[in-house]
Design a protein that fits this description.
Pfam families: NAPRTase, NAPRTase_C, NAPRTase_N. The chain has 18 helices and 21 strands. The chain is of the alpha/beta class. It has a domain of about 170 residues: TIM Barrel. Helix 7 crosses helix 8.
Length: about 500
Amino acid sequence: MKITKDLYQGSLALLTDFYQLTMAYAYWKSGKAEETAVFNLFFRKNPFHGGYTLAAGLDYVIDYCRNFAFDERDLGYLREMKNKDGSPTFETAFLEYLQNMKFSCDIDAVEEGTVVFPHSPIIKVTGPLLQCQLLETPLLNIINFQTLIATKASRIVFAAKGDAVLEFGLRRAQGIDGALAASRASYIGGCSATSNVMAGKLFDIPVSGTHAHSWIMAFSTEIAAFEAYAAAFPDKCVFLVDTYDTVNGIKNAIQVGKQLRETGNEMEGVRIDSGDLAYFSNVARKMLDEAGFPNAKVVASNDLDEHIIASLKSQEATIDTWGIGTKLVTAYDQPALGAVYKLAAIKSEDGQWEPKIKISQQTIKINIPGNQQVIRYSKHDKVVADMICLEGEDIDKETFVIIDPVDPTKRKKIFTKGMDQEILLKPIFRNGEMIYKIPDIHTIRERAKTNLSHFDKAHKRLVNPHTYPVGLEESLYQLRTDLVFKMKNYNGE
């Protein structure tokens, strides 16, 4: 899959905020463009008041970086920009620098389908300061949205308790890009199929769908509409039964189902898109069973999300398949993940990393300095804790103490004997060359399913989830604390 080539037929280098270009120009003017820096992309809170987040979007990031270059149309646009006095915003020599620039960063990232948590880097970018800076906006755009939607999908799938979940959100999604990315992320998060045919083509996602109310309305009677659809698709009939009267619609579906059976085919089920879903699903189940269709599915749609599904489950609704649209693809109850991209270190002339920190009156907004790695500890196939540490830290010690990034009174001692450890930030690019083997989307989806299975249900519950321990290794915590005091003193506080 080539996002830029398939969708945009050209460069996406200008998919950025203008201040990234002004900073890049100023780095170049001040001689800092080629200094080696490391930036981390992370978020500060789990979305939807949940207990975890599911990483997604790396495939798009890889495609963006592999095609990262300024073409002549980009440079022509920048060349026409003027300052207030009429002078060019960017010098010709700078535009020539951009024209000749070759992507040369190292990128380490958490693989798609991995469960992640606040303050831990999802992506680490190391390389020339100017290039790292130019990647900020597009990487945030990609990761923020797809991670948000994958997480929402996984919560809906969790609420469905093993039932199939179908993504039906194309018509309500935020534009073409939002629809395609949402379909992809929803599948990673556990949805079984999408209604979005282009997403099916581009991403190899199963597609699903039958007919709408307009199909019924186009015929003189509901049963005539069902019969016509059965004639067209005898082996995949799910009849939408609530156009006029739901109970009568179920009766008509059963009648056509019996006709199908006479030709050697079987009705797949009925779909209910309005009204009291708990009541009508139970009515449908009873009627289908009594008519000899115990295997016919009851499909429900109608502005569903994880909370409504959980409620319907508690009401003992007999729904087998859930069609989810608006509230999934728009992340209805939280419009953005809020991931950020922060400078963590710059390499000094002697080759040592000089950690950088942004301080704030809000502890949650004080970034973690230094060139970092994230280690996940598990035992007996169950996760125990994540430790954020400096790259090169001795991770073979018998014990570690991790300290919560926001509340230093929350500490956990990790006894590593008998534990498995996983380095979460995997190498993706080295010196601009991709070294990572991109898995297919079905492998990513399976990784998400497996990853989530390693976490206790308490971490995944929809309301008041248990907090999974993630913390800074002691020496990193001390480095951060020392830098905070140093910068406060430097600024005269």
